Automatic annotation (TrEMBL):
Transmembrane domains' residue ranges: 28-51
Transmembrane helix is among the record's keywords: yes
Source organism superkingdom: Bacteria
Keyword line: Membrane, Transmembrane, Transmembrane helix
Organism, as annotated: Pseudaquabacterium inlustre
Record-given protein name: DUF58 domain-containing protein
Length: 347
């Protein structure tokens, strides 16, 4: 690791993890930019020339420009001082998809210009961010603004958010003021659904009181239809028949109440629907199960999820989809070949 990399690593580790970050003199840094160093060298040459040729106007111009640079340094530092950053909780995404981080910048003072937010140091190489540059915004006086950053997590699981930096070069670009922020929030990444997704597996015999599912859950036609009733969800409406007849009709699932849809880990690696799936690859199984969860949710079917070491009871709706995808994202192999993620124990 280079000296610069060691310094960044030391700086990141000494910072506390917080979802709110107030910029003060204790955590704001400022140094000249390349343009600033070039400007300082120009002033030095002008001063030497004025001394050598005894140019009074040269003295005046040199000290005037030096005074402007000092005022610029003060304004650059003040452009960030007292700002408060708040991170909104990031929404879960699928592996390989960009996740959007929304940072609210609150301004208790005068208007701020050219405030930039981006990933800091090692975060640029640890994660494939969608835009390596800075997201710039202006913050109104006594108001707030929102900056959005994108990052991509290639693997499923729960990931700590990367270290962020906020900086500005306003007003003249001669100085760079910045601060480093480590958010405490985490990003939940679901397994990437298998593409193309295979048909849903056939239902299993359901016990008394089990929720019914269609016998042709694999994507074929449903057993029948009935007139739409109050309480039917939009996913139960058979839109193809609505387009032809103009009357609202819903899926009739009474004829298949004896079978229940179970998304089983063991059934991912064998059998017709699993042709071509590597049975020894747990990530491929999780991707297939994720695709089946989305397919069942799209069709409005109640389903159960069965993983080694964990099982979700049969249910339907957005809550079931989130619970199933979270279980797939956090599942880790256990000593006996499968088990829940350590963070899920006891939940």
């Amino acid at each position: 690791m280079t000296l610069r990399g060691r310094f960044r690593h030391w700086l990141e580790n000494r910072l506390p993890r917080r979802d709110s970050w107030q910029l003060t003199q204790r955590n704001l840094y400022i140094l000249p930019t390349r343009a600033g160093w070039g400007f300082a060298l120009t002033l030095l040459v002008m001063l030497l020339a004025s001394i050598n040729y005894q140019l009074n106007l040269g003295y005046a111009l040199t000290f005037l420009l030096a005074g402007a640079a000092l005022v610029s340094m003060h304004q650059t530092h003040g452009n960030l001082r007292r700002l408060v950053l708040h991170l909104r909780p990031p929404q879960p995404v699928f592996a390989g998809e960009p996740a959007t981080l929304e940072i609210v910048i609150d301004n208790p003072g005068h208007e701020r210009h050219g405030v930039g937010l981006g990933l800091y140091g090692s975060a640029l190489t640890a994660l494939r961010d969608g835009a390596r540059g800075l997201a710039h915004c202006d913050v109104p006086a006594l108001g707030s603004s929102i900056a959005r950053l994108q990052m991509t997590a290639p693997r499923r699981g729960r990931h700590a958010l990367p270290t962020l930096r906020i900086e500005t070069h306003f007003p003249l670009g001669l100085f760079r003021a910045w601060s480093v922020w480590r958010p405490a929030a985490e990003l939940l990444v679901y397994p990437a659904p298998e593409q193309p997704a295979p048909p849903l597996p056939a239902g299993e015999p359901a016990g008394e009181g089990a929720l019914p599912v269609p016998a042709h859950a694999g994507g074929g036609e449903f057993d029948g239809v009935r007139p739409w009733r109050r309480g039917d969800t939009l996913r139960q409406v058979v839109w193809k028949k609505v387009a032809h007849s103009g009357a609202l009709v819903s899926r009739d699932m009474r004829g298949s109440a004896s079978r229940a849809l179970v998304l089983d880990w063991q059934r991912c690696g064998s059998g017709g629907a699993a042709t071509g799936l590597a049975t020894s690859d747990p990530e491929a199984r999780l991707s297939r199960l994720a695709a089946w969860v989305l397919a069942a949710e799209h069709q409005g079917l109640p389903y159960a999820l069965r993983l080694p070491g964990r099982e979700l009871p049969r249910a339907a709706g957005d809550a079931q989809r989130r619970s199933a995808l979270q279980a797939l994202a956090l599942w880790q192999p256990g000593p006996a070949g499968g088990g829940p993620h350590p963070g899920e124990a006891g939940r």
